[in-house]
Amino acid sequence: MSLNARQRQTLVWAVVGVLLLWLLAALGPVLTPFVAGGVLAYALQPGVAWLARHRVPRALGAALVLLVSLCTGRDPVEIAAQIGDGGGGGLKKLVTEAVNEFFAPIRARRAELVADPGYLLDVLRRGNAHANEIGDATLSEVRAAMNMSY
User: Fold this and answer.
1) Which of 20, 37, 64, 148 is in Cβ range 3.0-4.6 Å of 143 for a Cys bridge?
2) pTM (2 d.p.)
């Protein structure tokens, strides 16, 4: 079977494509963090660029916009637009509000738990007893493996 130049070129590119897909599949666990970082950088870039134009350092702007985005689940570009001409002060206010709202349910639950010290002590006692059971079983296995059972 004889192939013309166009068919050979198509065949070569098909083989290269298959090899590239195989390489990506094989290196998936290694490449995943880099791909995730690239997607995150791409998503944060517009908001961070806007903050940089308003004299907020890029690293700080990226970290704060990401923090607000993670706490609120909103798009970073939307966050930068909300800050508007508020600059660093607007960003600080937004970060403070987002973090406070995010942790409000946790603070409320903590207040409930602190109000009942007996319950907390009971949880600690049960946890301690459970940890002791696991520790004793582990030590027994170690002693048996080392022929130190007396």
Assistant:
1) 148
2) 0.49
